[in-house]
Amino acid sequence: MNDLERSKWFNWLDERFNLKPLVEFMRHKEVPVHRYSVWYYMGGVTLFLFVIQVFSGILLLFYYQPGVDSAYESVRFLMTKVEFGWLFRSIHSWSANLMVFFIFVHMFSTFFTGSYRKPRELTWISGFILLALALGFGFSGYLLPWNELAFFATKVGTDIVGAVPLVGDMIRTVLRGGEDVTGGTLLRFYAFHVAMLPAIFTVVLAVHLLLIQRQGMHEPESVSAAGTQVKKTMPFFPNFFLRDALLWMVVLNILLYLAVFFPWELGEKADAFVPAPAGIRPEWYFMFMFQTLKLLPAHVLFIEGEVLGILFFILIAAAWLTVPFWETKINRNIRPRPMTVIGIAAIIFIIVMTVLGYVL
Amino acid sequence: MATRRKFLNYVLTGGIIGWLGTVLYPVISYLKPPPLAEANVNSVKAGALADLAVNSSKIVKFGRKPVILIRTEQNDLRAFAATCTHLDCIVQFRPDTEQIWCACHNGIYDLKGRNVSGPPPRPLDEFSVNIIDDEIVIAQESEKG
């Protein structure tokens, strides 16, 4: 019996909700210790940043007013007049970017360690959905300040969706709330960003975390196959959790440093009757797709370059989503391992296209 | 009895699918924005000729669409839909190269609106330009005499 179980409060709750099995579960939760253990922390960091997004986002809602005549002005007011308004907006933007970054790190680490394999296929799929939702958050949130850059980036982004064969036109109209990017689009993106996406994201995130709790941490094959010697593990509470918490503090400090010393800019207000300025670009995590589309010629054979590019990315996304199901058919004894080659090729492609996007 | 259970399963499944349909149909229809009554614009006035310098341009509202009006070095007046045929950005006139340029993806059109380099797949739609009492009037191409 420990302090917790002696406490009056705990006993009061336990009598009613039978909490002892839960405490027992947490007490026995162990995390494997090996040379890849560091990657176990990436999901936790992402979760931490998501919590920051929720809190900073709620704060922004107190001043933000969607609408062509009010969105930009309300953000400017927030940034110039409201105490610490600039800070919370800057935290929200930086944290969003860091969150997407850590999602990618987390995703590739589970990819390279093969964590998606049976029995964790559904964890991988729920993670993929969370990635898609996070990108949706980024895309919809980008437009909300209604500045020039975001306005044209949204025009381009939604027009790209329109190039999807068959359903593209309908999706574009539903996204834009009409033919063009207008105040109607802004309202829709607002609804996506603050209501629809958070609701869906929270449910999928809960499933993702439950699956992980149910199955425990995955041990990479190279580690589990390594030998008969006693496996090293670490209790989740408090050892792993405290390390998690320490890393969260480090990330929070980096986030605050970025938010304070590199505050997010607001730019010029969007105007639908002014030529697009040079330097229109999406958020960095869309850059590799954007750049790929840019490099494609207007027509490849008889298909428009855009359509070809989009079909390519849809295909890649489908392949990525279903990795746990086709990877089993690939011979793992070939060196270098085919999956490692695929993963590295994907990373190189993303990095090269992103860099080209900023340099060209 | 298996057949009775099967029958009930069919009825229940069918009922649930039908119910989902009755819920989703209005929701999806609701999300599709109704078409706006488009003001049928055939021509717009674009200001006095004297206000538009040679080798310069301006963006004019043609209904809800932007149109780029250009006065060329040779003192010709041209007007095109200002929406890039590539991905919907708004184009601009480059006095230095005497071309129409889209900054989003470096699409270039010549002064006849033809896509000459970069990703645009089609030329820009042309509008007719007339001068009536020293005022520039832009009209849909089909209106042209």
Structure notes:
The complex is a heterodimer of chains A (360) and B (145). By secondary structure, chain A is mostly helical. Chain A has a domain at 37-218 and 231-279: Cytochrome Bc1 Complex, Chain C (Up-down Bundle). Helix content of chain A is 69%, strand content 3%. Chain A contains 16 helices and 4 strands. Chain A has helices spanning 3-6, 8-17, 20-28, 40-61, 71-80, 85-112, 121-143, 148-162, 168-176, 183-215, 221-224, 236-261, 284-295, 305-321, 323-326, 338-359, and strands spanning 30-32, 233-235, 299-300, 303-304. Chain A has a two-stranded antiparallel sheet with strand order 1-2. In chain A, a hairpin with a 2-residue loop joins β3 and β4 (303-304). In chain A, 31% of the residues are buried. Chain B is of the alpha+beta class. Chain B folds into 2 domains: 1-34; 43-143, Rieske Iron-sulfur Protein (3-layer Sandwich), CATH 2.102.10. Chain B has a 6-stranded antiparallel beta sheet, with no helix packed on it. A 4-stranded antiparallel beta sheet of chain B has the order 5-6-7-8, with no helix packed on it. In chain B, a hairpin with a 5-residue loop joins β3 (65-71) and β4 (77-81). The termini of chain B are far apart. At the A-B interface, α8 and α9 of A face loops of B.
